[in-house]
Amino acid sequence: MKQKTLLVTLLALLLLTGIACASPSKPVIKADKTYFDVNTGLYVLKGNVYIEVKDRIITAGMARVSIASLEVWGTGGVTVTQGDIYFSGQDVYVFGLQDRAKIDGGVTFKRTGLSITADRVEFNWRSKIGVFSGNVGVTQNDATWTADRVTYNVETNAIVQPTLPLTAGSGG
């Protein structure tokens, strides 16, 4: 009976290991200090946090990560990059399975020919839409303007729904 139980357990472990290795989006997680909090089911990362999921990279001073839901709660000099897209801010919450992120605290977005600053941004990787709100400043090519809210489409590289600019001018 013990041999059957041992055999079934080994087969189950082999099956689960094979499934885990076949996962194409296995994240890479690095930090100065890392531990798993058994009470919350989250990895707690401190110092030089680096998280790579798919082709996205998140850095922060401190973060908590759920491997099951691919959720990330980060704080302290947060950056989120993918290709030529770059976000930075104070705090980030990534809804990994929904391909969405919220960044707060002095957000900066940069892309070739475009810079947007705001209090916060919500970005959806599926729709390729970023919604910037609160003290939004836009510099696009040589034009600079501000607004309360700006919606930007990464795929078309276009501002799709700004409120009327509060101020406009030429960049320098």
From TrEMBL:
What superkingdom heads the lineage?
Bacteria
Please state the span of the N-terminal signal peptide per the UniProt entry: 1-22
Which keywords are on file for this protein? Signal
List the Pfam families hit by this protein, alphabetically: LptD_N
Q: Which Gene3D superfamilies match?
A: Lipopolysaccharide (LPS) transport protein A like domain
Span of domain Organic solvent tolerance-like N-terminal: 116-152
Q: Which PANTHER family match?
A: LIPOPOLYSACCHARIDE EXPORT SYSTEM PROTEIN LPTA (PTHR36504)
Query: What is the name listed in the Swiss-Prot or TrEMBL entry for this protein?
Result: LptA/OstA family protein
Organism per entry: Anaeroselena agilis
Q: What is the lineage of its organism?
A: Bacteria, Bacillati, Bacillota, Negativicutes, Acetonemataceae
